[in-house]
Amino acid sequence: MTQDQDPNGDILLFPIGTISEKTGVKTVTLRAWERRYGLLKPQRTPKGHRLYSMDDIEHVKQVLQLLEQGIPVNRVRAILDQPDAASTNLISIANDSRAKEEDPWRYFTEHFTECIRALDSRSLDRAFNEITSSYSLDLVARKLVMPLYGELQKNNSIFPVMGAEQAFFHEFLQAKLGASYLRNNQNLPRTHKSLVFKTGHQPLEVIRALLLANIVDTHEYEVNFINHIADMNALPLILQRNSIDALILMDAQIDLAQIDILSQNHDVSIFVAHEHDAIEEPVNYYKLEQDFSKASSQINKQLSTS
To answer: For the whole model, what pTM was predicted?
Structure first.
């Protein structure tokens, strides 16, 4: 027999009044926690009276501990449902939760940085999934991924010994975003349009292209990539062999004169990344917006009318 059992070996159960006395929580509050927030799941007698176990008492104490840390009651369940929500680290989890709510971008930037420095791809993957489940990829790209990538790139240029951090983050993003667009390609409708992204040597170009590829309407477009191994001379043959609706050039080394010829000889919408400031008023191709959301809308609008 344990302390949670009676002499017959049955689990000890207590009425709501006893739980109130043991925890200091009013009965009306206990009922509200159950009905409104799903924090308690008491058993019921045949007449419908609530009965609580010793585990329920400990659960109430955990709720109180989180509330004392300033966590809103409507956030408590999400914290307690976490696999590592043991009493010993509830305060740490509560602090993390509060930091996420107060300034999620600062919190996740710091968390991403910790994962990158530790070369911890599993934790970084979980954090990436968490932030993208709460915010659009466009917003995550603007507020988190691009600023952090830029900071790592800057650190690498000043302190080459820190290059491993940018390299690690680059490979993570390339794998994560690449797997995402490939997965989307498997779930396309029978009739869809095809986008081809052409990237250059610059790592930042690759990441920007992968982000944009996942931000455009991936349920309508098949997305494929060509990297720096193929130069501009390879594009005419690619366009001749394949039915491609849009070519997105995010390569700083491309020749604008070649693009003009390409656009005149092939029925394809061509978008050129904003880095090419020499583009003034292109007639046969489009200067791609720098903002991810605007660039996505620009591509969608053009292809919807073509």
So the answer is: 0.70
